[in-house]
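Note to self: keep these together.
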Amino acid sequence: MENLLINILFVLLPILIFQIFYINTDSKYKNILLATVFSISIIICMNFTITNYEGHFFDLRYIPFVLGALYGGKKVAIFLYFVILVYRFYIGGEGFYIAFIDSTLLLIILLFLLIPKYQTYSLKTKISGTMALLGIVAIISLITCHTLFGFILHAPIVLLSSFVVAQALTMGLSVYFLEYLITMDTMKKQLYHNEKLKSLSEMAASISHEVRNPLTVTRGFIQLLKSPGIDDEKKITYLDLSLQELDRAESIITDYLTFAKPHENIELELLNVTAEVNYVANLMEPYALMQNVSITKEFFIKESYFLGNKKQFLQCLINLSKNAIEAMQNGGKLEFKVNKENEKITIQLTDNGVGMSSEQIGRLGVPFFTNKEKGTGLGTMVAFSIVKAMKGEIKVKSRVNEGTTFTISIPESVSTSDKED
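Structure:
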C-alpha cells in the first residue's frame, strides 16, 4: 500500500510541474520538459514497485508514459519508450520481456491510434479511453506473464485485480487533472484577453468623448463666425475660445500619448531636485494667484540629484500642482517640501482642498477617473506613469474637506561633481 501511494504521488508530481512550468514555457522547450519530468516519474515508479511477484514488477510506470505521449507528441512517446526499456533492462530479470511486449504494444496504439486524434476527443472520451487502455494493457501483461512463466494461477486474485483497478483509476484521475489545468489556463488567457479588449474599448470611447467635446464647441464658434453682422470684438472672442478648446483637445491627446508610449528609450540625465521643484513652484505662481492660492517652499536639502527625464519630470510636477490648486476652490495654500530618506529623495505636495475618500485614492492613476467637473484624469495618470518609469513611487494621504498630500519618492543618484571629489 505504501509503494502504491508513492507511485501515485510520483505520477501526479509531473502534473504539478506541468501546471507551474509547462503552460508558461516557450514551445521549443515544452517537449524537453515533458520528456524529462515523465522520465523521472517512470524511473521512480519502477524503483518503488507496488509488489514484485516471482520476478514480475507491478507498478504504474505506464501512466506517465501514456500521459507524456498524449500531451507531448510522438517524439516524447518514443523517448519515454526507450527510457522504460533501458531502465528495465538495467534492473534485470526475465520480466524485461514482458515490459518489452507491453511498452511496444502501448507505443503502437499511441502512435497510430491515439496521438493523431487525441485532442479532438471530449473529456469523457479521453478519461474513459485512457482508463480502458491501461486496464487492457495490465490484463494483457498478466496473461503474457502466465503464458510465459505460468505463475498467474498461483498469484492472489486481490493482488492482480487491485493492480488493474489502481492503474486504470490513476490514469483517469491524471487525465482529468491535466485537462482541468489546461481548461483553467485557457479560460485565464481568454479572460485576460477580454479584459484587455474591454479596457481598450473603454479608453477609446473615453478619449473619443473627451476630444469630441472641445471640437464640438470649436465647430459651434466657427459657425457663429460665418453669421453676418458680427463685430470684430465678438470675432476675436470666438476665435480665442476656439483656440482654447483646440488646445484642450491637444492636451488630452498629449497626455494620453505620454502615458501610452514606452519609457525605455527616453533620454535620462542627472537632475537637481531643488532646482526643478523651485522652477515648477515659480512657474505655477501666476496660476495659483488667479485661484487665490499661495505657494510655499521648504527645502531640507541643498543639493540632491536623481536620474530622470527633465521634460517628463516637470510635466509630472505641473500636473500634480495644477490638480492641487484646482482642488482648493475657495483658495488655500500649496506647500512644496523636499527631503531625503533612506537614500531616496522625497517631494511632498500638500494642499488644503476638498480632499478624497479612500475609495477615490484607490482609483487614482486610472485613466479618465477624476474628481473635477471638466477633468479627464489623464494628468494624474501621466504623473503616476512618469514616476514609475523613474523607478519611484507616489503615495497619497488625504481626508475629505481637509486636504491631500502627494509624496513622490525617487532613488537618489550621485552627481558628476561628487564622483570627481
